[in-house]
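Continuing the batch. This is chain 6 of the set; chains 1 through 5 are on the previous pages. Same settings as before, nothing changed between runs. Recording input and output for traceability.
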Amino acid sequence: MITRLTCLCCLLVCFTLNSQTWRLVTEPFPPFLIDNSEKPGWVHEVVIAALKSQNKKAVIEYTQWARALKLAKRHKHIAVLGAFYSEDRAKVFYYSKPLGFANVVLFKRQDAVIRYNGSIDSLKPYTISMGEDYVSSEEFTNNSTLGITTTRDLVESLYLLQQERVDLVAGTQEVAEYWLAHNSKLQNSDVVITALNPNIATHQLYIISAKSHPQSIEFQNELEKGLVEIINNGQAEIILNRYQLSDKEKQAFYSPFIRTEMP
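Output for chain 6:
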């Protein structure tokens, strides 16, 4: 009788683990992560596919970035998708291997005269908007002499720029260009927004999970095993081709997980 009960308990534990659903969270971060059921973004799709290959279900909630980080810290969600690296975050979160890269730049109104030469000091005369809890660069965000204000997200910062309420916006170039082309709030304006050179920084994209979460390491291990599996079986290539990633973008995704050249 005891043996049967032990076997039954083992079966129930195995069933629970195999049927577990990982709850993930992020902010809309197109083209990487898009709150769209038909084409949700390539990072969204590869993460779901990777976990599915390990017999794990996953659901991704889209919310404000600052809230996403808080939900993970409070163990409401196991991980946050699409995070940049910062020393402060690394104290709190485990990082996956990088899945890709993104460029952080400064945006201005096309008709505005901005004297930016790449140095932080050249930005002191201007008011700069960025999303709450966003990472641009350590040098940029830790400089107390800059006139930086925060908003709930990049769309709101770009809107303030269109309305001439700030001089510059710091944000991810790929994401901003997507929003300027697709967001109805931003398309109502005739103001042309352009990016300044040089970039503030180029960041790699990670999946992060709170170190204090009891299943954080388990999640990171399953995610990595799953990513390797969908790369090896060709499923990742199908997803990346669907989003028309360049060879450089594909290589950035494949290289942390395999030693050979990309498929």
